[in-house]
Design a protein that fits this description.
Blueprint (H helix, E strand, L loop, with lengths): L3 E5 L3 E7 L14 E7 L1 H11 L3 E9 L2 H12 L7 E4 L5 E7 L5 E6 L8 H6 L1 H5 L3 E5 L4 H13 L3 E5 L8 H5 L3 E2 L3 H8 L9 H10 L4 E5 L5 E5 L3 E4 L12 H14 L4 H15 L12 H13 L1
Parallel strand pairs: 1-4, 1-8, 2-6, 4-5, 8-9, 9-10, 10-11
Antiparallel strand pairs: 2-3, 6-7, 11-12, 12-13
Helix pairs in contact: 1-9, 7-8, 9-10, 10-11
Bound molecules: alpha-D-ribofuranose.
Amino acid sequence: MPNKILVLGSSNVDLILRVPRFHQPGETIRSESLTTIFGGKGANQAIASKQLGAEVVLITRLGDDHYGKSYRRYLTQKGLNPKSIFLDKEVPTGMAFIELDPKGENRIVVSQGSNSALSIDDLRRCSPLFRKTKVFITQLEIPIETVTMGLKMAKNSGALTLLNPSPSRPLSAEILSLTDFLVPNELEAQALTGLRMRKDQDLPRIAARLLKMGVKNVVITLGPKGLFFKNRNEEIRVKAFRVKVIDTTAAGDAFMGALACGLAESKPIREVLMFANAAGALATTKLGAQPSLPFRKEVETLVKNHFKD
Ligand code: RIB
């Protein structure tokens, strides 16, 4: 039986606009194309773990509208239990407006919609699901009190907790102390600590500050520069895999899903980081959030070929 991962988080419908460049305030430009794809950090991370072979449960809330109903059907077809995928009668499905430039960089604006209604009551309804959880993942596209309660319930059931602090916002000492693995990107790490990262040598200092703030392990993802890991005992630097970047959307989500998967399988931390790094890299080679999430074989092949070179 594969290991159980519980993901608490958002589901959005992503509207992706390919733009020739990011434009200035007050300027109007034409988009080269518009693509509609299922996304949202919570659902992306759940599907990422699932495609890597884990048994996954997703707790999320969609609108009771056309988008929400078809997204729920899709998630069910992907093997996620619909019982913890709630439909909201009051608020429409969350949407993300994503601008994508020719280098594959993105800018995202999220309209929270039904994600803002994912509540502590929803968590209480799902409490039996926490019992068998080995690894718990959450992010910040849902109400902060729901995040806090999710972390508490996960800790109480003995699970390892992973927090992806995105989109960035200040975090309470309580949340930080409930977090076993904090996984920010460079910008989020700087925002949380108030420390600037001018050069690579600043990473240990920033990670040390996050440890001091209460988390047990820090993984700072650095896009094309790889990642930096630190806990009380060790520091690990992993370089990025070289791939042809099409779209960086959901690279962080693929990374989170793979990190959770590796940790749930109790692999050594270096191996887990390599696996997650490869999953993140592969997600940048295709357009969109969920269609870009890799399968286990692809991730293992990328890691194997890397060690062959
Ligand atoms: O991390 C990528 C995701 O961020 C997108 O799918 C979008 O929905 C936003 O939540």
